[in-house]
Write a structure and sequence with these properties.
Aminopeptidase; Spore Coat Polysaccharide Biosynthesis Protein SpsA, Chain A; seven-stranded mixed beta sheet; about 35% helix
Amino acid sequence: MQEYQRITEQSIETLRPFFQTYACGICDNTVGAVYQWRDIYVSYYAVIGDMLCIRAGYGVYGDCYTVPLGAGDFDAACEANEKDAQARGIPLRYCVVPACAVARLRMRYGSRMQVESIRDWADYIYHADAFRTYAGKALHTQKNHVNRFYRDHPDAQTVVVRDAQTEAACLAFLDRFREKHPEFTPLEQNEWNGAKDLLLHREKLGQTAACLVTGGEVVALAIGEAKDDMLYVHVEKAMPDVSGAYPAMAQAFVKCFDGVQYVNREDDGGDAGLRYSKLNYKPVELREKYLVTIRDDATYEIRKEQTMNKPILLIMAAGMGSRFGGPKQIEPIDEHDHVILDFSVFDAIRAGFEKVVVIIKKEMEADFEERVGRRIRPHVQLEYAFQSLDKLPEGYAIPEGRVKPWGTAHAILCAKDLIDAPFAVLNADDFYGADAYRKIYAFLKEERPESECAMVGYQLGNTLSDFGSVARGVCEVGADGKLQSLTERLKIEKRDGAAAFTEDDGQTYTPLALDTLVSMNLFGLQKTVLDAFEARFPAFLDENLPKNPMKCEYLLPRVLDAMMQEGKITIEVLETSARWHGVTNRPDLPILKAAIRKMKDEGQYPEELWK
């Protein structure tokens, strides 16, 4: 078995090449961060099959492994971690796992994986230009502090550390900084030691160090490294009695890197003060990282029955797509032939879902499996349910000439035999955003009374179109966070920087606030509602078939609203800040593609989801 060795100064030349080809935009996959924190985390490494394996101690989680890095044999590297964990008698856990690597681990471990997002590990990502200018109302405080700093210190200069004299001045600064903080915790002391190490070995580690000098003394220091379009800032320190030195150093350091578009200022480690400070700089993203625990085979078999009741994702994909002009559920939205459902399942897996049921028409099965199912199947338990017109209660027949499906509540009934747990239900042609899946999974995983359901509520401004009106369910929410009513507004438009709806073809408009909560048909339901759906269907048919035999629909929102008004269920509204995208009409497609491209460029999704 390959021995793991402590990471030391002598390890740098071995480690550094592995970090040149793989980052996923997280600080933990940079040589600077690994070296700086090596003593704090008591980090070990091994090179297996041209892959870098690292084992480190992560506080309450104990010894964990990072996802193997490199272009070599991924499975061989994982096997080495498995053997090392077994030999040491510790659980096999992967820590600080970026979103782009979760799917890769799932290909090896499948349903044995338990995935948990750790907020304290999330990296803060910012637009580099925001730091270069501090422009706009959101950053006016930082800009004012910087202006004051340069007004108080007109001789201040940014100096990149390139010679022994400047290096010595920076070391003296770190010593003065330490004297200003006599009550260092052990963690702070180790972090300070790591900052000195990065400064002393910056060239060998590929780091850039820069300082602010005024009055002949260094008053602030930053150390980091650029990779692709991201600057990773590992050290940022300033004298606490020099007003404005911190934001001035943060700005000056980013200005040293002309080519970067984003700045990663690392995680906050759960420190409340640090979290407040980082949030004040208005990050564009909190890049999630995950703890992935691998259950051993024996434990997996013991817990297999328990996991049967874990929340299920139910995706409705049987719609005809008439306005779109084709089966929009399998229309590619990027250059890798991903469809919206790829992103939906990817986000759902990251949130914790392990089983997905997709409702389609039987005649779509072959195409759907070829275009979508075969990619998703290795990463999650995937099953199909088939919506068909002839699935009717005993004694009812299809009206002659009817081809239109019976509606969304009927679609869910067609999947009843596959639903044995609380479930989230959503549309296949809507892009809901990762936060929505996290919110609905967190609700469903808790044991609740059978009457308690939920709905993800979107801010209206995040669901509007620049190219016409939209129909939305406007929510009235009580003080207890429960839905009171859901009113369908069929024509909502952007007007004069706000929103308004019309009910008389544009003759008059009623304003709506952009933060009004609306429904996008993402519900979290208890499995017992399926019995109620089934029991109510005959009454629906009796009432509606005589009036509209060709087009009447048994619709999910209406059934839920009726049950809510009767006091049979409650619906908690889970507010999300996510932005919705959809492809109701074909002109929506290029807009969605552009949004996906932007999210990939920002690192919210890997270039290829299932690679």
